[in-house]
Amino acid sequence: MTVPSKTPLHGHLILVMTKPDAKPQGHHAEEEPRFQLNEDYWSAQGFGVDVDGASPNQPIVIDERTVGYPLENLAAVPAGDYLVQAVFNVYEQFHLEDGRNLWLPPDKGEGQHWYSKPGNPYNAPVKLHIDPKSSTPIRVTLDKVIPTIAGTDEDPEHIAATSPAAKWLKYVRFKSGKLSKFWGRDMYLGAWVLLPDGFDEHPNAHYPLVVYQDHYHAGFGAPLPFLTTPPKPGAQGREKMREQYGYKFYQDWVSGRLPRVIILYVQHANPYYDDSYAVDSANVGPYGSAINDELIPYIEKTYRGIGQGWARATYGGSTGGWESLATQIFYPDSYNGTYTACPDPVDFHAYQNVDLYDDSNAFYRQGSFGKIPIAADRKPDGSIIANTRPEYRFEYVLGTHGRSTEQWDIWQAVFSPVGPDGYPAEVIDPLMGTINKQVVEYWHDHYDLTAILQKDWPTLGPKLEGKLHLAVGDGDTYFLNNAVHLLQKTLEDTRNPHSDATFQYGPGEPHCYTGGPTEYTMQENSATWAQRVLPLMTEHMLKTAPPGADTTSWRY
Where are the alpha helices (DSSP H) in 306-366? Predict the structure, then answer.
């Protein structure tokens, strides 16, 4: 592979191969090979190699020693014709406040997707005959560059400027002093703000704040549809349902059928992932402080929030589920309730399907006569669709030293101390599966939410009464229900006070189940979540508001 350049190359080369006659799968079914590589290991073959200071135009070699996924090396690839495409994920050097100088992939506004990151060189797909037994080199030149997103439908500022919902939806690009100091460069948070109907007509009203937690999305309408027009004629399937429920949410919002609150959705993509997990971290930085101590006070001051803990709540699912629960636990006085759905592992006895405390290896459990692979993903009926070993290998192909910008690596980046090389300390060896128990101990003390609640219950318990509400499908795709059950058992054993946390389990329901009426489909369940939880949040706020609190100006 050759990458035209005028300066030395730092980054990670990812080569993707697909079969020309194979039907592409997944969200990018009609797209190029670079969009087809994913962790369910049947769409594409990938190889990855680090590039540290290579000379301009110096060939980057992929050979039988290069780590591959799902086939483990080039020698295992059957001879034949393939569509071949490569992307060079460009790294930049970050000079951190603590003296570390790290080469990392910066987010360029795309939400940490190496295959669409502006500035990354790549080549158009080319059909090649590959025979691992041949000694003849195959040359590919990465002669294209992914364009910028500025002024496109993937640019939040462009979306905000052209949105028909601009009366209610505002976008803020907020420079964080705390994050900028940590990372040694200017760092920003994006914030979508949904204002209540009547905001301009009631200048003396102040409003509760509801923080919605989710992965990175360019626009507010992706995580929480707010669509001012009815569904387009001809819309079908998932698109039709999204438009129907997005329009219904808009109607409920502007008609007074929903409480008049401010909803805040924060974008916090960073050099390790599309999301920071909204806590302070040795590797990812002080995102918890930046969001709660810098951004939220600014939003409340700018848009007339009440600005007190009794008048704040949070909710989210999956990554956002973990964030919403962690936010309520780590900032117990600053929030008055969380509605948490399908959260990432809240107890590291069930780190997906791995017990970090009792297992010695994350890839296998040792039987009397052999090794038993540890499953990672499943269908609701229990059919296994992925194991932990290939998932780790997939991420290793995308980046070493925890730089894949994928799921296992971001958990490691958030939860781990700094490792001896300056990057996140490995909790699990990505190629062998060995579990580092010293790192696990750090995880336990700082980020195991069940362990923290158990240890600090005498202090936390009284502050969390009436505030904890969790839902998860008992067929969760990533086994996340197991950790929620462990959390429930721990809270059921609490005293002084006895926890009143609520739990709802969806029998046989997969990932992203949010609770609610049992007759709802998964799609209805997700699409009506805001309408279901906002009244519950404000009802609790009114019941627990301190004497003299503003409980009237926002209830017009």
Answer: 319-330
